[in-house]
């Protein structure tokens, strides 16, 4: 089971404003950039904290990655999440395999 979620996040205090895009306008950003990865990890962690499920979810795909330069930087992301086999009360959950990896792969191919 995968879930697609959208996280509009404001990171004015966390990220320095670079020269990316027109001020006030959204522009696509590299989903592999350190700033985006940090924001994505925060968003997934926040999602796991607030969802009513005993299992962790993790991002399986970045569907959209944009930023907006204003007084700081807004990061807009659309992620595909999947449920893992790791329970939230497991303190040593470093590697969390998906519940149904073959089903997730079939969804990503379509």
From TrEMBL:
This protein's record includes keyword Lipoprotein: no
Pfam families associated with the record: Cystatin
Gene Ontology MF annotations: cysteine-type endopeptidase inhibitor activity
Keyword field: Disulfide bond, Protease inhibitor, Signal, Thiol protease inhibitor
InterPro entries per the UniProt record, alphabetical: Cystatin_dom, Cystatin_sf
Source lineage: Eukaryota, Metazoa, Chordata, Craniata, Vertebrata
UniProt domain Cystatin: residue ranges: 21-108
Family: Belongs to the cystatin family.
Signal peptide: 1-21
UniProt GO cellular component terms: cytoplasm; extracellular space; vesicle
Name under which the protein is recorded: Cystatin domain-containing protein
């Amino acid at each position: 089971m995968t879930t697609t979620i959208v996280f509009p996040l404001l990171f004015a205090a966390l990220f320095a404003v670079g020269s990316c895009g027109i001020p006030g306008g959204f522009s696509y950003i590299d989903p592999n950039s350190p700033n985006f990865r940090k924001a994505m990890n925060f968003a997934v962690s926040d999602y796991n904290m607030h969802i009513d499920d005993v299992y962790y979810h993790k991002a399986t795909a970045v569907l959209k990655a944009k930023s907006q330069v204003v007084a700081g930087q807004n990061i807009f992301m659309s992620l595909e999440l999947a449920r893992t086999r790791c329970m939230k009360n497991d303190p040593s959950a470093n590697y969390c395999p998906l519940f149904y990896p073959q089903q997730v792969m079939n969804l990503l191919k379509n």
